[in-house]
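Researcher: Quick test of sequence recovery. Tokens follow.
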């Protein structure tokens, strides 16, 4: 039609943009709902709410308004690999993920309460980053991990061949736990001893859990944990929280998109994911 290409971009550039005051109101609303979001996730959430803005502008406003989150670090040992049970090789190093129930990731972390700690065992589907099983206990025993595993099996009902990946901790290497896996047709995979990068996705998940939930609330008792934790894991982490590895969409939405598109063989760029593992 003999129209210059620049004409099209000119019209795009002249669309009205939101002012700093209105934009900051939207940013503050997002930070109130997701207190540990950084500027990249805030930018992605603004776009989901049809507010198109550059991430540098979001960073500037968040920095000026003191909305950038500050990380707190704690560490408690939860892995005891000094045992005589069988140790299994790592089967998921640089594996390409293409479907649900291909790899399940498991690990344990601690949660501080007023008088001591309680422990959380969690299982994620590596493809969708969705929490599919979890359990809380005041004791660091194999029964904790088995409860989380049984929850995941009940909710997903997987066929045989799922790769179950964990560290070499006694809770995962115990005869009781490995027999449970073998009875359901799982293939057992374990991280190398003393190498947290072999289960980097779980480490990232626990970091998010601590920063966006645990550190924001003062748990008094295990009952407080049992009350709040399901809401965060299922209502926030799975259903609302944007994941950069998934193209900034929540795990529930990611799985729904994948399931709905399987018959058409059409899916976004996340069709093949690779577990972030370092040597």
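Model:
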């Amino acid at each position: 039609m003999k129209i210059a290409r620049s004409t099209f971009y000119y019209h795009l550039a002249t669309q009205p943009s939101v002012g700093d005051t209105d934009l900051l109101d939207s940013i503050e609303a997002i930070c109130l709902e997701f207190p540990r979001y950084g500027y990249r996730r805030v930018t992605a959430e603004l776009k989901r709410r049809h507010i198109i803005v550059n991430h540098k502008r979001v960073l500037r406003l968040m920095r000026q308004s003191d909305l950038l989150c500050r990380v707190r670090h704690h560490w408690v040992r939860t892995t005891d690999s000094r045992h005589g049970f069988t140790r299994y090789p790592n089967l998921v190093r640089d594996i390409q993920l293409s479907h649900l129930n291909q790899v399940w990731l498991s690990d344990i972390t601690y949660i501080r309460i007023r008088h001591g700690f309680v422990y959380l065992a969690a299982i994620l589907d590596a493809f969708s980053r969705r929490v599919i099983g979890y359990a809380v206990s005041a004791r660091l025993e194999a029964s904790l991990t088995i409860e989380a595993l049984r929850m995941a099996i009940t909710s997903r009902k997987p066929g045989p061949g799922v790769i179950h990946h964990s560290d070499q901790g006694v809770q995962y290497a115990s005869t009781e736990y490995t027999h449970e896996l073998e009875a359901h047709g799982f293939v057992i995979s374990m991280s190398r001893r003393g190498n947290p990068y072999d289960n980097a996705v779980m480490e990232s998940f626990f970091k998010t859990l601590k920063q966006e939930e645990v550190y924001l609330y003062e748990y008094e008792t295990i009952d407080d944990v049992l009350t709040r934790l399901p809401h965060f894991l299922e209502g926030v982490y799975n259903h609302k929280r944007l994941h950069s590895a998934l193209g900034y969409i929540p795990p529930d939405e990611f799985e729904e998109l994948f399931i709905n598109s399987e018959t058409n063989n059409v899916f976004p760029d996340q069709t093949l994911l690779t577990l972030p593992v370092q040597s």
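The first strand starts at residue 96 and ends at 97.
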